[in-house]
């Protein structure tokens, strides 16, 4: 049954593709797992042997693998990651709201709403076309440079705004795909019961659309979590800027390794959660289709 529910297989399943006719029971699963782990150990062992025996290994080891510096720099780098978490949490909430508004505007039917659809489409196209770091530069340096009274100059404020604008464009497309996945007959049925177009959208379409796009949304927010390091270019002292400061003080790149370790610890569990949700949705869809 699991083969039918997920014909492509779990990417982390050592057996890979397991179809209904190829599942060999418990013995076959144990054998496949042993072969998978054995080949993995051999592959990474070979790569490690090549790296260690290369002529530049002593220099790389000194520049990137200073154990004492790693231990000493990790507390400051982990503390700076709190700024990234704040950026991520605030931008995530704002993105969810703004992206939903944009997606709804793009989905409103009727010629009278064409200007709204045009503006929403232009917004999504522009902010998906421009590099994120360019938007961060323009907002972080351009607007404060105008010296307008009452306009904030805190780089953290513009970092949040820039990340929200960038990811709202991408997330709005995810929302829109979810909205369009709801069959028009459901809207027609809601209208026949006396609901208005807006009520049908609110009570019938959006609840289904949002539930369907949760896994893709998590993928986008994994990207948002990583892209918080881009705001270091406008002076926000977050985890990447802190690692740069530590690297400049010791002339050693090991702090970057500590930064990478923090992101791995935070991001990989979220990625596995996303994969689990996707597999669960596929199994539910397959069970419903039977």
* CATH-defined topology of the largest domain: MetI-like fold
Task: Indicate the mean pLDDT.
Answer: 85
The largest sheet is:
none
CATH superfamily of the largest domain: MetI-like
In the CATH classification, which architecture of the largest domain applies?
Orthogonal Bundle
The percent range for helix content is over 70%
Terminal CA distance reads 11 Å
Tally of domains: 2
DSSP strand tally = 0
Task: Describe the model.
By secondary structure, the chain is mainly alpha-helical. The chain has 2 domains: 2-52; 69-289, MetI-like fold. The chain has 12 helices and no strands. It has helices at residues 2-5, 25-52, 57-64, 67-107, 114-129, 132-145, 155-181, 184-192, 197-212, 214-227, 239-250, 254-289. α4 crosses α7 (155-181), α4 (67-107) packs across α12 and α7 packs antiparallel against α10 (214-227). The longest helix is centred in the first third of the chain and has 41 residues, at 67-107. It starts with a helix and ends with a helix.
Quick synopsis:
Helix content is 78%, strand content 0%. The protein has helices at residues 2-5, 25-52, 57-64, 67-107, 114-129, 132-145, 155-181, 184-192, 197-212, 214-227, 239-250, 254-289. The termini are close together.
Give me some keywords for this one.
0% strand, mainly alpha, disordered N terminus, MetI-like fold, 12 helices
């Amino acid at each position: 049954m699991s083969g039918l529910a997920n014909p492509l297989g779990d990417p982390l399943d050592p057996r890979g593709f397991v179809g209904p006719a190829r599942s060999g029971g418990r013995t076959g699963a144990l054998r496949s797992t042993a072969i998978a782990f054995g080949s993995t150990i051999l592959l990474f062992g070979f790569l490690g042997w090549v790296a260690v025996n290369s002529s530049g290994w002593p220099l790389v080891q000194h520049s990137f693998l200073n154990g004492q510096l790693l231990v000493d720099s990790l507390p400051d780098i982990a503390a700076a990651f709190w700024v990234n978490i704040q950026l991520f949490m605030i931008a995530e909430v704002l993105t969810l709201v703004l992206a939903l508004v944009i997606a709804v505007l793009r989905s409103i039917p009727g010629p009278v709403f064409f200007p709204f659809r045009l503006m929403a489409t232009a917004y999504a196209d522009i902010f998906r076309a421009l590099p994120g770091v360019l938007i961060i530069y323009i907002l972080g340096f351009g607007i404060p440079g105008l010296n307008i009274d009452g306009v904030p100059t805190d780089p953290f404020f513009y970092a949040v705004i820039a990340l929200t604008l960038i990811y709202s464009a991408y997330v709005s497309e995810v929302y829109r795909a979810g909205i369009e996945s709801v069959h028009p007959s459901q809207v027609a049925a809601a209208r026949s019961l006396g609901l208005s177009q807006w009520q049908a959208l609110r009570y019938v379409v959006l609840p289904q659309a949002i539930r369907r796009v949760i896994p893709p949304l998590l993928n986008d927010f994994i990207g948002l979590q990583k892209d918080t390091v881009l705001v270091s270019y406008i002076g926000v002292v977050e985890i990447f800027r802190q690692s740069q400061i530590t690297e400049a003080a010791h002339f050693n790149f090991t702090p970057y390794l500590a930064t990478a370790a923090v992101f791995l610890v935070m991001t990989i569990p979220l990625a596995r959660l996303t994969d689990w949700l996707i597999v669960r949705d596929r199994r539910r869809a397959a069970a419903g289709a039977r």
